[in-house]
From TrEMBL:
HAMAP family: Maf. The keyword Hydrolase applies. GO terms for molecular function: nucleoside triphosphate diphosphatase activity. Keywords: Hydrolase. This is Uncharacterized protein. Gene3D superfamilies: 3.90.950.10. Its cofactor is a divalent metal cation.
Amino acid sequence: MCIQVSLKRCCLQGQREKAPARRPKHPERRRYLQAANTILSQASITSIFLSVPGLCNCRICSFARLTNIMLLQHKTALNAKRVVLASGSKQRRELLSNMGVKFEILVSRFDEKLPKDRFPSGAEYALETARHKALDVAAMVSEQQQQQHGPPVDLIISADTVVEADGVILEKPDDEEHAFQMISSLSGRDHQVHTGVSLVLPGEPDPSTGQPPFVRSFSVTTDVTFAKLSPETIRAYVASGEPFGKAGSYGIQGPAGSFVVGLRGCFYNVVGFPLHRFCAEVLALVEEGRLKL
């Protein structure tokens, strides 16, 4: 789903969320924390509006439900199946929940540290990471079923999101200085956000081997442009604690949304899960008779 976005005042401007403050390793701590509070206060009433009247992304909310139209005719049957989300991501959990999809969460044990120099692009890196995470959870599910003899899992969903700037893959920051360097490298420039997604059908055989599981993987890329940011703004943002646990040190659905001046592609891909493509791929599995509803 391609959308054009612009920065406007949020319709939920009265609803503010406090982000946990982190102590920056900097002598002028008080000034940076004050600046961080200012940014968070402003960002909580600033949002990225879609080109759909009356809908905003201050929450991962109402617009996600529109995408559900693609799966509406299969919603009841799909929710009768056992679906597992192989991710601990809050954003992915909220997006799927807002679509009305029922699922369990089983976080992969896979160590997401594949050697980046093996991959020609961030998209292929994210795709391979998502595939490994999905297959790891498929193995975990198989072990559980052998021990507990529970109902079989019908669909496993995994995803991995990375940011790429000038061929450099940016994942989650290690510390405050790392986060500062990441945001500085994105300031005033274009970058790409790649999300790799793997859909695993544990009971469906792979055509090439004749053995389960069946795996379908795809990736989606969105181009994002940041405004030019001052070092003080970046330090204040880092001090807020927002960069941590996020690819590229930012989440577009939070205060960093105010840094974005342009976006080409799927907004929800930047959040961490490309809803439209996901729905299209699930529909394809149903129509092919692989995902039996």
